[in-house]
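Please decode residue identities from the backbone states below.
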């Protein structure tokens, strides 16, 4: 036996004669072909999963054998597979802490009280570390479940499964067929005061059915359920049930059913609500049904069903892939990797794994951490839009508990960990080196920096046909595909207001001219020559103003003529709908095909406008018709002023673009937030690009460290979402 089998603290426990608490139940489970043993305490709903080697020792704890005898028997029988003394001491400590052991001595009441107080402190610390999911126990529902189980047991069997399929599957088809109406209703009313109120009313009821489904499923298969209460999820009171006793079930299908039945219940409620929503007229009932649809469908798929959060989907995943305690074991696996390979601690013991578990353990911890941080930031921003300081507090607290606190614990272990005695130099150097490299990579070393935007292929400025003034289309003088020359009339518009303005300007000019002639004649006949000259000067100024107004009215009248600015072939996409249509000033109605390279009208959001205005190093464009080819482009001009207009509906988010559109838009697409438009000149090699074709644009900016790029993005996000 190697030295690692021995422990310097073995003398403290070797003479103890432990005995398992009589209420504990043992269950054998086979996971990935390997037997495991689960100890379940029905009083406190705790489970302990043991390897066969650990079970060899624990199963012989009868109060007659000492710990030394137990360990020696394991060594004699199992050989090198016997648990080391340190591991056995840790196991005894965990069982003792969980009140799973009795001994041959009188119970230490002071120790019992200390453990009770410590457990209460740990519960409050868990609440403080996760203030968005506070738990308060209220009721033991086990007797109620036993009395009422016969009335609902059929729902948990084949008849219930058939009923679920008969309701949910057709509802899924109806949801797909009516998705446009559902999405439109969500865009219009989801965040309205009425909708938020109805969701607040129905949410506790939906969650109560969810949790009772867990409880009934667990009780039906023999697990006791003694813990039910309220959990303040993002400060919203919702019921919870502790059905952790199902972890001792021998069959993974039973465990997965208990874990996932809450989601099935919510989907069933959402399906029923959809049937009601489609059947009733707008009103309170329809609003309540829509709230149940959102809570039972969307929240189930995004939160409860997400295995990266420790909700129902996580436990279903653990049973489906046969990797129990995935989160804790993944964290332990990463800690072992760091200790063994980064810090060079050869005595670090690899966590027990079976074939195929390694990839899950390696992937889960970083993915879960990243998702938890992002969801915490998202919730903080959502709350901060209405309650600024609450959102900031949630965000800061979440980052401290999920990132800063574990980091501080690691540094504390690095400074005072007993397993680093005599080996502290390498871990310290590796940690310092890693921190230095990370700081250099984030704050010093420049990294490629670019921003992405979308645009549409746009005709050259001289090839565009625009209405210079607003008016109704009175006549279409050209047909699509017809060659036209420079100055040829394409559309004639009519605007009664401009006609009246022209007539008024003409009349004022005639009147001013008559007054000027009278004043001119008075200078020859009046005795008061000085006064006559003053009147002539006033009349001359009035005449010039009237002539300017007349010329302005003529120019606006001329703007009612849409003419070709160069030779080309006429392209009018909506020629048949043009007669009688009202055109706004500056509206594009068509273009001329000239054979020259078109431009790209690209839309840039507020987050990227500073980098684009500063002057990108180069601009790369990929056209939707030929994504394999990257063509260079030159920035020609910026459309003056940013606004909410979009050059094409193809740039809207729901049509594959990147810009969120205001759901209250009229005939023309309007961005939800302010955007900026730029014109890019394409090389002559893409003269055949289709007008209106989508263009993917990459602005290559000056290199910048990744940390500064991330900080800018985060700052922009906070400034855009919060009232700062």
């Amino acid at each position: 036996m190697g030295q690692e089998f021995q422990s310097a603290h073995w003398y403290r426990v070797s003479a103890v004669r432990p005995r398992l608490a009589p209420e504990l139940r043992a269950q054998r489970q086979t996971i990935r072909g390997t037997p495991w043993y689960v100890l379940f305490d029905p009083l406190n709903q705790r489970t302990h999963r043991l390897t066969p080697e650990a079970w060899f020792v624990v199963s012989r704890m009868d109060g007659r054998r000492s710990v030394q005898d137990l360990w020696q028997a394991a060594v004699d029988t199992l050989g090198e597979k016997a648990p080391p003394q340190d591991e056995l001491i840790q196991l005894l400590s965990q069982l003792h802490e969980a009140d799973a052991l009795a001994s041959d001595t009188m119970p230490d009441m002071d120790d019992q009280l200390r453990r009770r107080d410590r457990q209460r402190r740990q519960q409050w610390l868990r609440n403080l570390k996760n203030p968005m999911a506070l738990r308060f126990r209220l009721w033991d529902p086990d007797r109620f479940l036993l009395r009422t189980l016969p009335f609902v047991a059929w729902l948990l069997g084949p008849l219930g499964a058939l009923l679920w399929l008969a309701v949910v599957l057709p509802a899924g088809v109806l949801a797909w067929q009516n998705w446009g109406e559902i999405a439109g209703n969500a865009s219009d009313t989801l965040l309205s005061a009425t909708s938020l109120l109805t969701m607040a009313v129905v949410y506790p009821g939906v969650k109560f059915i969810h949790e009772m489904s867990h409880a009934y499923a667990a009780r039906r298969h023999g697990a006791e359920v003694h813990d039910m209460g309220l959990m303040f999820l993002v400060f919203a009171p919702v019921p919870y049930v502790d059905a952790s006793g199902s972890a001792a079930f021998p069959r993974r299908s039973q465990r997965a059913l208990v874990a996932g039945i809450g989601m099935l219940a919510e989907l069933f409620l959402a399906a029923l609500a959809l049937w009601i929503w489609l059947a009733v007229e707008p009103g309170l009932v329809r609003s309540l049904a829509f709230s149940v649809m959102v809570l039972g469908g969307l929240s189930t798929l995004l939160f409860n069903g997400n295995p990266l959060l420790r909700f129902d989907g996580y436990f279903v995943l653990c049973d489906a892939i046969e990797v129990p305690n995935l989160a804790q074991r993944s964290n332990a696996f990463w800690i072992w990797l760091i200790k063994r390979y980064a810090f060079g601690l050869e005595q670090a013991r690899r966590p027990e794994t079976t074939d195929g578990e390694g990839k899950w353990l390696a992937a889960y911890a970083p993915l879960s951490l990243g998702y938890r941080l992002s969801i915490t930031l998202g919730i903080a921003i959502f709350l901060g839009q209405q309650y600024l300081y609450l959102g900031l507090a949630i965000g800061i607290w979440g980052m401290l508990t999920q990132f800063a606190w574990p980091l501080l614990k690691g540094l504390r272990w690095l400074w005072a960990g007993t397993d680093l005695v005599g080996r502290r130099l390498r871990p310290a150097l590796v940690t310092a080196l890693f921190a230095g490299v990370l700081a250099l990579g984030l704050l010093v070393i420049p990294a490629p920096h670019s921003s992405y935007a979308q645009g549409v292929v746009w005709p050259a400025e001289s090839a565009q046909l625009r209405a210079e003034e607003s008016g109704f289309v009175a006549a279409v003088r050209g047909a699509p595909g017809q060659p036209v020359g420079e100055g040829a009339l394409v559309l004639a518009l009519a605007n009664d207001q401009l006609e009246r303005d022209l007539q008024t300007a003409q009349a004022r000019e005639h009147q001013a001219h008559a007054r000027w002639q009278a004043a001119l004649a008075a200078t020859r006949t009046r005795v008061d020559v000085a006064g006559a000259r003053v009147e002539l000067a006033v009349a001359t100024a009035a005449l010039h103003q009237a002539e300017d107004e007349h010329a302005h009215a003529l120019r606006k009248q001329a703007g009612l003529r849409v003419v070709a600015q160069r030779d080309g072939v006429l392209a009018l996409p909506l020629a048949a709908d043009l007669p009688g249509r009202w055109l706004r000033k500056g509206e594009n109605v068509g273009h001329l095909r000239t054979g020259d390279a078109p431009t790209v009208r690209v839309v840039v959001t507020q987050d990227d406008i500073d980098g684009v205005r500063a002057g990108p190093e180069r601009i790369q464009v990929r056209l939707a018709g030929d994504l394999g080819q990257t063509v260079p482009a030159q920035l020609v001009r910026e459309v003056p002023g940013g606004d909410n207009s979009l050059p094409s509906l193809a740039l809207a988010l729901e049509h594959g673009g990147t810009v969120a559109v205001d759901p209250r838009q009229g005939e023309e697409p309007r961005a939800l937030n302010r955007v900026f438009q730029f014109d890019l000149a394409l090389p002559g090699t893409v003269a055949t690009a289709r007008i209106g074709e989508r263009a993917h644009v990459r602005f290559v900016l000056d290199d910048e460290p990744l940390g500064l790029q991330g900080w800018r993005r985060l700052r922009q996000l906070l400034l855009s979402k919060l009232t700062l």
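Observation: The chain has a mean pLDDT of 82.
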